[in-house]
Amino acid sequence: MEISGSDQLEYYLSSLNELGEILIEADKVEQIGTGVLRLTLGTIMASKGVIFLYKKDKEELSFLASQGIDKAEPISPPKKFVENIKKYRYGHVVLENTPKWITGKLKKQIVESKTRVILPLFHQNHMLGVMCVSKKFMGEEYSSTDVKILEIIAHHLTKALYNYELIQDVEDKKTEINLKLLELETLFDISVAISSVLDTEELGEDVLWRAVGILNASKGMMLLQKETNPILEPSATFNWDEKTPLLSKKLEVFKKIEENNAGVVLTPENKVHLQKKLNEKHLVVAPLKAKNKTQGYMVLCNKETRHGIEAFNQLDLDLLTALCNQAAVAMDNAKLFKDITEAKQFNESILGSIATGVITLDPIGEIDSINLAGTTIMKMEEENIVGNHYMYLFEKDEEILELISSAEIENKIRSEINIPFFTVSKETVINMSVAPRLDPEGNTQGLVIALEDITDVSKVKNTFKRYVSKQVVDELLDDDAKLNLGGEKREVTILFTDIRGFTSMSEKMKPERVVSTLNEYFSQMIDIVFKYNGTLDKIIGDELMIVYGAPIAAENDTERAVITAVEMQDQIKILNKERKKRKEAPIQFGVGINRGLVVSGNIGSRDMMDYTVIGDTVNLGARLCSAAGPGEILVSDSVWEVTKENFSYNPLDPINVKGKKDKISVYQIQT
Amino acid sequence: MADFSLEVKDEGDVVVIETNGYLNNVGGEKISQACYEKMENGKILFLLDLENSKVVNSIGVSILIEIIEKLQDVDGRLGYYNLAPIVEKTFNIMGLTKYSTVFSSKSEALEGMS
């Protein structure tokens, strides 16, 4: 059947219409290729055809669609083909014989597909591919209309491929931008972590995880270096099941990083010791560097792709370096914070544990901190102290205000002891020291007040200083254990003195003269008592009762008692010479000394209580004193026994004493 | 290298896959393999419990995109729950959440998928 020209035209027009539908409907390039090739071959009645896509970066032709022949591996076309085909970019090539510029695997494909017409697919100077169409059915020759139709289809295909390439390019760029955005977000997240995560280990782990993820690494580890340790310490690992090997910071690769101040990308060609140690060929290593000091390294292994492992590149190293720089600063900050916190806790624990109250004032004189001892001394809650101005807090204490003010104005340390502290109570006594607070540049940032509550000490001193020497008071205050005022049995030495004939002497004197005479006498005698650490137990009229061995016992209590007595008798001779000059009657007294068990403690009522000793030992001491004549020192057997080696005694006849059935041995000291 | 593991459970019409480990090439392939096997048996709704996968890389994401594309061909869906913030952020940035859904809990996810 004859086909008329108008039928042919209508057929071609319907083919072009179908072509439009294919290009509109297809959403994948493969669908475009297959659809267009089928349409082309059907339109011009050819049995075989191929559409190749040209990838400029790889310089290869890959099969997009084929009909009548099997798809094969991509072909690298000869350079001459690329150069020559360009000449026909808006037309076609009809192959009578295979031209010389078609060689190799391409020639083989052309021959196998019985290609008759090649249609270059060019967008401007850029080759997108080629379409090869075989001889027509039954060897019929191509008409000019056939060729024109082929060119029209090729132009539309070119446009579609170009559009697809553009879309693909946009998609690729979009993915690339997303990845870049992810990188930026990661960097941003780490910068946020700098101010939020203050645990160095947590921070290190976080940064490592992000680095592994963002760089598509298969695993990684963070190594920290310490000055004292030659081995790098793996502080965090990710996806690392194998035991981490010992890595010396002297390894060549780390030295190189240090020298060049830059990380490295290692590929299988490098063959450095680190790759062997980690049993990995693809590595990227960047230093963790802050303040020009290397803190360690981040090591990532194996850059993953969908098709296997590939080498890390410079961009990967740049990104890892940026992450490491941020991480190093963050970790340095975290470490600094940790150090400061520890130092603060250390200071607070010291301030909290000391008995001295510490108050700090800011530059305008407001209290910004007080330790536990401070609140205890102040007898106030911290919240009622902090924030107040010192002038308000200590308004009842002028002396304290002056002290603080003077330290503030003169910028010097000022101290005062035994200050009454009316802020707390009339009875409270403190020692206070005020010092300027200086910052590292030496600028004054306020004041530090140290206060010590010495009320109890003051009470003890006031109580005991009348009875014992300063040395004994200090000893008692230094060691509370020595002070047992609750009542106990103990061995002591008791010394009594009694002025002979004082009653008759005083009857001839004016009362005030009596008092001044006694005061002069007692003053000199008690000085001697304290000189030998005796405890003045009582003054009864013109009598003195002294104790050695209470409240503090010593090995030489008895010797000291005897020396005291001897020195007292020597001193009275001196005093009497004075009295003689003043035309006053001499004072003479007797002394009795005994040693034995007594009960000691605070004895008396709630209103009137004294530390004293009681018992037979005390009574016998008093009896011996009564028996002693003027200037005489009598001691008991127990005293003689202890001191006979050091003093000369005259044994006297045993005497009867009140309350004792048997006579008592008595010894007189030779003075 | 640490193993990536997963547990696959059928909860009604929904297939729940609990993952454990780095969602990278290896992890992604294991997930896709599990999904495709279930798809062959007619399952089209999938939920990933990523509680124990705290790190994901772009290869893992690209494999999830492949799964989503295949599910779209059969009108199926993919959802996730128990995502670490860093993983959720990665999914958002890489555009994954445009074609799949992040749920805040398993119960919400099961309800949202059915």
From TrEMBL, chain B:
Pfam families: STAS (PF01740)
Domain STAS residues, every copy: 4-113
Gene3D superfamilies reported for this sequence: STAS domain
Name used for this protein in its record: STAS domain-containing protein
Entries under InterPro entries matching the protein: STAS_dom, STAS_dom_sf
Native organism taxonomy: unclassified sequences, metagenomes, ecological metagenomes
GO molecular function, one term: anti-sigma factor antagonist activity
